[in-house]
Specification:
Blueprint (H helix, E strand, L loop, with lengths): L2 H14 L3 H8 L20 H20 L21 H15 L8 H14 L4 H8 L4 H8 L3 H20 L1
Length: about 170
């Protein structure tokens, strides 16, 4: 089965899930914890393909809500349970994320937070400025990002030496 179909099937299965804990969570007050820092709330750029996927998913969510009167997305969040409440991270990981990883051929244990680190490391390895990555991650300043991702930068340091040498060679000639 193609990956997209597998992911869609898992999302649809997640949307149909109704559990007692979900109903209790819906009755509780705002389930979100306060943000860690003032930089935690931020806007990040995403590419047009991801934007389209989100728009399509929101249309699916709206269609689902119109057919299921118990679906109440009070917090206007993208990913919800089948009744519109926030998804519990542990529940999501156990029921869906680990299955998606397995079906994608990823064997190593991978957490959602490790995906954040992978994202930052790939951006840095591809030459994205550390201050841009820092803002994208919501860090208070680039020093935090540097201290966490310094292990990624030695390759960049070698590349910087090579680029500098090329610049100086061109100026000398």
């Amino acid at each position: 089965m193609p990956r997209k179909a597998t992911v869609d099937r898992l999302i649809q299965k997640a949307a149909k899930t109704k559990r007692h804990a979900d109903i209790k969570a819906a009755a509780d007050a705002n389930p979100f914890q306060p943000l860690k820092t003032t930089n935690s709330r931020r806007v990040i750029d995403i590419d047009p393909m991801i934007t389209k996927e989100i728009i399509d998913y929101l249309a699916y969510q709206d269609a689902y809500a119109s057919k299921h009167s118990n679906f109440k997305n009070e917090w206007n969040i993208l990913f919800t349970t089948g009744i519109g409440t926030p998804i519990d991270e542990k529940n999501f990981r156990t029921r869906y994320f680990d299955k998606i990883l397995k079906e994608s051929g990823i064997q190593k244990p991978l957490s959602l937070h490790k995906m954040r680190h992978t994202h930052a490391s790939i951006l840095l390895k591809h030459g994205i400025d550390i201050s841009v990555v820092s803002r994208r991650l919501g860090h208070a300043n680039p020093t935090i990002t540097y201290n966490i991702y310094v292990h990624v930068l030695p390759e960049s340091m070698a590349e910087a030496g090579k680029v500098w040498s090329e610049i100086m060679t061109k100026k000398a000639s």
